């Protein structure tokens, strides 16, 4: 039976088809724009390989777009009819759970696969991705440390494992280990976007802003083949400039880097969740600093109106709400909030609970804020603060929600709440709030 590059036996028609799978995996691991084309080419070599259809389903789910769920379920059904082996059948079970809203069950199945097959990098990376977007950073940490001793350092994909170790350790506060792993991954491959991203996070958390700008600037020439993750790295670069109050450079990076509407990457999915998160969170931060952002909110608000009722990405929902409220579309904002409540009531599973408990309070706070109801915003958001991490996103990304709470607390003259928020931030970030934009004046 053919095997993949990591030595896992798989249902491929030929060694050539296995190589096609390996090429797709390599592109996926490195966040390459051509990943869908690599998958299409692999399917042309072997249209009856269960794992290729599993990848197709997983990639559909990773878009966090309700409209893609039928395609994911169709790919899973196709794969089930192709006599998958036991490991491949577990992949399909995990994807089924994910498509049905059972992310916790999906995580458990991927963990089982990695326990039995520690070099199954597809299961590992789907877990890494999903655990991150559910705020399960300890699960990311545990799985990478469980799996990586089973990898030889010359095995294809080992650099990606280092990148994942870097990011998992960074989010769990082990900055020295994270930086060392991320820099080693970049030494092996300067185009490794996930490793570049992980080190950028370390530098941001530690307030090393000049280093952060230099780190991204020197690696940018290697990002040309990357997908939307390169936009997110440019967002990190803009965050370093924001901390230095270099607002013109932030706006330049917005227009030419992470919200470049002319980029072919953007044009493929102009409402991709992470791109819109990048944009909305930066505009929100800039406006809190008194910066005129012009008409940049408008196209985001248009995208937000088009996605009312799509609640798959819980963390994106407050960002859509930022755009709607910033442009004064309060009727649309109220409709969005109603749609979120309907979704949470009508569905079971992990995501509806997270939307109910955390996304709705954040979005309601934004709508109260837009109406000038600051005390109401504080009251609705306060109970959710302790579990807000379940929305997903990194500390750097979640920061915008903490700034939101601080903003409404200050406007409501709720000094006790403002002090509580600053204490939370001080306990989590190595860089004290006094040295950070958005907090120093709080």
TrEMBL record:
Q: Which residues form a coiled coil?
A: none
Which protein are we looking at?
Answer: Tetratricopeptide repeat protein 38
Alphabetically list the UniProt keywords: Repeat, TPR repeat
Question: Would the keyword Repeat turn up in this protein's UniProt record?
Answer: yes
Family that this chain belongs to? Belongs to the TTC38 family.
| Domain of life of the source | Bacteria
This protein's record includes keyword Repeat: yes
